[in-house]
Design a protein that fits this description.
Number of strands: 14
Largest sheet: 7 strands, mixed
CATH architecture of the largest domain: 3-Layer(aba) Sandwich
CATH topology of the largest domain: Glutaredoxin
Radius of gyration: 24 Å
Structural class: alpha+beta
CATH class of the largest domain: Alpha Beta
Shape: globular
Strand order of the largest sheet: 7-6-10-9-8-13-14
Order of helices and strands: HEEEEEHEEEHEHEHEEEEH
Helix content: 25-40%
Length: 314
Amino acid sequence: MLPILKFLFIQFFYSLPLFFFAACGDEDRVSSLASVGFNEIRAEVLSIDQNTSRIIAVPKIIGRQVLGFPELDLGKSIKFKVEPGDFGYLSPRKVFRAKVQTNSRLDSRVLSLSNIWPDDPTHRIRFENYKRLLKRDTLSRGDDPIRTIGEYLPPFALFDQDGDLLTTDFFDGKSTVLNFIFTRCSMAEMCPASTNRMRRLQNLVFANNLSDVQFLSITLDPEYDVPGVLKSYALAYGVDESNFRFATAPKSVIDDLVRQFGIGRKKDDSMTLDHTMRTLVVNSLRQLVYQVPGKGWSEDDFLARLIGGSNNEK
């Protein structure tokens, strides 16, 4: 028995260097993993080519599950396929995190990126601070955190369809029409109808020269509706983006916001959300001044409120 144990011990001992160096080989490609998911990378954009929907980027951090792609390496310039909507954010020197996959339909040698999120270090710090403030505010409101007419907005931060950080400073000095939608909504009378109604209201705002009015739609489905998806959604609906933002954030932030704005939401399957609707007006002081629950709000009604609000604030 002892010779066998001695043999096994010797074999284990001499295998340690191989194990150690294999592990080190991977560790050289991994850094600060807590800040990215196992199946994500963080990278910086070097150049873009919108004609071919390609970017060249340099990975800074590689998640453990992405190590199976031999093409990836820290500090190496790599070509990636992206979706057209992602160019709202991606430009040289921008930092992002994203999931990586092969794209066998086009070219198996070109990796594709999905679920692209802005990841600028400065914005990341500001965003985390706002997220903590919102969570604290939500918890402080107890079991019934819903805000009512006359109350002021909580502090929060989101990312818009261009990947820019949007905080509650966005509301200062303008009246804002606010609602909640999600891009995969297939019920014509719900999110699609609401977005079309918001677009028609926007046209009425332009026609009446209401330069102090803006629009904000917040997604209910942040796991899918990243900024690039929202950009494609805005383009598909023909929305004038000069005063209309679509916004998203990690799920915990959206969860707090839907609680505070009284939106009922539950997931029926991987693509369907059963949710209630609420359309609101926030004045230039971040105060809720009007709301209509449900899907049956009128553009003319909201226009009258916005005109009246503009006159009252002059």
